[in-house]
Design goal:
Chain lengths: 138, 60
């Protein structure tokens, strides 16, 4: 009897880890830092949210350009891969037709890079949320 | 709303936020996260200054 209870609770625990190992990265991709917050790492999640969102929004404000999926050359495709890492921020930018870029501004290029890096940093944050979910990291 | 940062300010902002993310994601304990984040920040800015001086020397 005790063994079956223990086995059941282990199975439930394993199931939770299994579900969280999918949910945390997914939520973390969509909203930067949320993958940490749903695992009760509030401060880490909040810092990740503030850092990634701020970097992306500053990039937008600097008249940076957003890359789309149908980019022509390899650099455009790489830019898209970086941008898509920002999750909902990228989707919102596309929907609102922001991120058109401005060649006239010298710092617009920095803005473009800021947005790409924000997406790439979110990929790192998603991987970290996954490692926390599978117990590889506290 | 448009923001116009000069080159060093842009590097500073980038270094700050990248260092925070690196610190959190690359270390386990809070103390290690802070130390690594600070190290990353100093390395980023130091690298920017060094690269600037190297470019100045090359231009000369």
């Amino acid at each position: 009897m005790a063994n079956s209870t223990t086995e059941r609770s282990k199975a439930v625990g394993a199931g939770s880890v299994g579900a969280m190992s999918v949910i945390a990265p997914a939520v973390g991709w969509l909203i930067p830092g949320a993958g940490h917050m749903i695992q009760k790492r509030w401060i880490r999640g909040l810092l990740l949210f503030v850092s990634i969102v701020a970097l992306f929004l500053i990039g937008l404000a600097m008249q940076g350009r957003i890359y789309k999926a149908n980019g022509g050359d390899i650099l455009d495709m790489l830019g898209f891969v970086g941008d898509i890492g920002a999750g909902a921020l990228y989707l919102l930018t596309l929907a609102m037709d922001w991120g058109q870029g401005a060649i006239a501004f010298a710092t617009a290029d920095y803005g473009t890079k800021f947005m790409i890096v924000a997406g790439l940093l979110n990929f790192i944050a998603v991987a970290d949320a996954y490692h926390i979910a599978i117990g590889k990291k506290q | 709303m448009t923001i116009a940062l000069n080159h060093f300010s842009a590097a500073l902002v980038f270094s700050l936020f990248a260092s925070i993310v690196f610190g959190i994601t690359h270390r386990e304990t809070t103390r290690e996260m802070v130390r690594y984040g600070v190290r990353c920040f100093v390395t980023f800015l130091g690298g920017v200054l060094l690269a600037g001086w190297v470019m100045w020397v090359l231009k000369r």
